[in-house]
Amino acid sequence: MSARLTKRIVDAAAPxxxxxxxxxxxxxxxxxxxxxxxxxxxxxxxxxxxxxTRRLTIGKHGxxxxxxxxxxxxxxxxxxxxxxxxDPLAAKEAARSAASVADLAxxxxxxxxxxxxxxKQRSWDTDAAILRAHVKPLLGTRPVKSLTRxxxxxxxxxxxxxxxARTTKTKPRGAARVTGGKGIAARATATLRAMLSFAAGRGxxxxxxxxxxxxxxxxxxxxxxxxxxxxxLAETIAGMEDGxxxxxxxxxxxxxxxxxxxxxxxxxxxxxxxxxxGRGMIRFPDSKTGAKVTPLPAxxxxxxxxxxxxxDNPYVFPATRxxxxxxxxxxxxxxxxxxxxxxxxxxxxxxxxxxxxxxxxGGAALYLVGKVLGHKQARTTEIYAHLRDDPLKKVADSTAxxxxxxxxxxxxxxxxxxxxEKARITKKTDRSAK
Length: 434
Fold this sequence. Notes:
extended, three-stranded antiparallel sheet, alpha+beta, 4 domains, hpI Integrase, Chain A, 17 helices
């Protein structure tokens, strides 16, 4: 039978020798199951994306499940199935297996990418590293359903204070270091919040306890090279390369980063087929912001044309130790370079900032600089606005000069006595008084 389920209908439903189903006329597949023993439970019958018919038991009639609450739960499940292909019954089974935060982290990394197909794999790799380094050590054994907003806020503070910091030996001469601080604490909390949002969407938890937790404000310190520092850095690179203390591939990579404003990963993984020497550009099929075209200036072209192309290897900078793939280890080589140049705080990414700062200081429009760097949003480029004599300042200066000129005229008249018009009015008043 089919009717809009109400409490009255549910209460009046009588058991029979076989199971009885009363289907709701408002939400397709939502209904009440009455067993021969008199048990009443709300159910949802649906088809998966593969066409398989499945039946989900939402809950028994009574506290906490009212008819209206069960109907809303059925709607949410059908919406999640339609938008994300999430099987409600599979999600319920997953909820049972994701009892702890550590279990949820594993489930999130396994099934989360299917719900966010536009999120890049390297971002998922970063999430995995954060969950492994900070979330699991501090919250891994906690039941997911027990987490509160206060727990999430405390987690952020604990990471900032270094309670998850440690050093793990990875190789005979290598070690992995996990550090604390407000920056990584905010990022770890953001990752945790995304994971809990996934859990809430799957019905593992009723709501996201991280909602409303304010992240620590991250102070971005942008480092820009001066012309003197660029010269010193170039001198250091050349000296180390000549002295066999820096591999030629690493030296070329760093020079290209300085001359193009590209990101480290873009240069490390650069392929010959992406370079259009005739038009002077690189067509990146993918980057942090998606596919993009980067202008290739003449000095960068000279560097690339001077490189030897390795047979059967598509990369401009192939692996330096005979392995397949592109060069790795640039970060370590950069550490040696900046130490030799006496610039220990300088990051590889600061070379990109410096490229932008030189462009803006030379009068280039922020919009065009953003296009060269591949920024999708204009506000990303606005951090460089203070590095030039901005047109807005010229407008303000010009306007202020005009206003100041008018002010000086008024001040001069004020110093010489009342205006002529006011004087005539005074005389007329005097004559009328007589």
